[in-house]
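Weekly modeling sync, notes
Attendees: AB, CL, MP (scribe)

Item 1: holo prediction request
CL wants a bound-state model with iron/sulfur cluster before deciding which constructs to order. AB pointed out that an apo prediction alone won't tell us much about the pocket. Agreed to run with the ligand included and paste results into these notes for async review.

Input as submitted:
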Amino acid sequence: MRKVPLSESLRIIGRGSGNWVAGRPLVVSFEVTDACTCYCKHCDHGGPKEESRNLKPADYRRYMETLRPCVVQVSGGEPLMRPDLVEIIRNIKLDSGLPYTILVSNWSEMTEERYLALRAAGINQFSVSLDFPDARHDDFRVYPGLYDHLSYIVPKLGALGHDDIVLNSCITSENVGEIGALAGKAKAWGVNLCYSAYSMRRTGCRDYFLHTAEQLETLNRGLDEVEKLRDSTNWIVNSPSTLQATREYFKNVGTPGCKAGLRFLVVTADGWLQPCSMQFKRYRLEDRERMVEEFTKTNACDECYVSIRSYLDKSFPQLLWENVSGFFSFKTSQA
Ligand SMILES: C[S@@+](CC[C@H](N)C(=O)[O-])C[C@H]1O[C@@H](n2cnc3c(N)ncnc32)[C@H](O)[C@@H]1O
Ligand code: SF4
Ligand code: SF4
């Protein structure tokens, strides 16, 4: 995975440290639309949605000036459904290079032109969902032809050499046996890989969680295999401690200590603040501190270990070390 240049790394870490002390979020996830091109089995989005109240590109500047995050995720729904996505990114990105900006997408609508335009506008990392290393991906996402499209466009754009594409595989009971094969696919396509973990909270469906001893064994075997594949290029993007915490999340059916609302938060397509994408208590931008008081300080929810949590539930020194050693410029060795 491409490392952030030293000067930019220092700015990100500087702002992150300031936000940590000031009690402002480090990461903000903008869900720029609720609509989606897919109908994934594990997700509550899917299909067309009412879009008339969506924030306009220029509105994002006000959120950035108030929240001042050092990392932004642009997500949805399916963010590539917004024809004005490049303009949104331009309003999120500052001249200083901040924030580090990740586009989380299913890539059904990705083209070379859009990839290059989004890079030029300021996307640092393209996170591409892939649940299976073959056409079972189409069945799970209810989008015929999606896997074929990805197997064409991902290696093609990976070959441009920017090293900013990361496959994002959400581990479920359906694909737990494919952990190693998904890593093989990332390698074959010349891109990076990040695992995340299924949460029952999004849809209430228990079927895709790992419940049996056999499923947990398969998970551990798959992740053991992945640990052996790490090398100095950082192409397995999760840190070892995050993959260890993923094993514990499934084994213990949850991970306590969530800082949603404080260390990270979601801005909905129509401009409300939410603690996370699966907690629907909504606040106005001006009421962020009230969200921390009312929600975060008493939050006992432990029902996910999605990547936004896995970055941020750690202590500040651990977080800094993992990012400094694994992600930003001054890499020494894996934490
Ligand atoms: C909600 S989607 C939005 C962006 C885009 N549509 C996509 O699929 O990448 C973001 C990520 O959430 C994951 N996701 C969906 N449902 C989930 C669940 N129940 N638990 C954990 N992750 C989930 C998806 O696999 C995807 O990688
Ligand atoms: S996971 Fe992404 S692609 Fe699938 S339905 Fe949800 S928002 Fe759409
Ligand atoms: S654990 Fe935290 S981030 Fe996850 S669903 Fe619960 S409140 Fe949201």
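Recorded for review: Residues 201, 258, 260, 275-276, 278-279, 299, 301-304, 309 surround iron/sulfur cluster (ligand 3) (CB under 6 Å).
Action items: CL to compare against the apo run; MP to circulate these notes.
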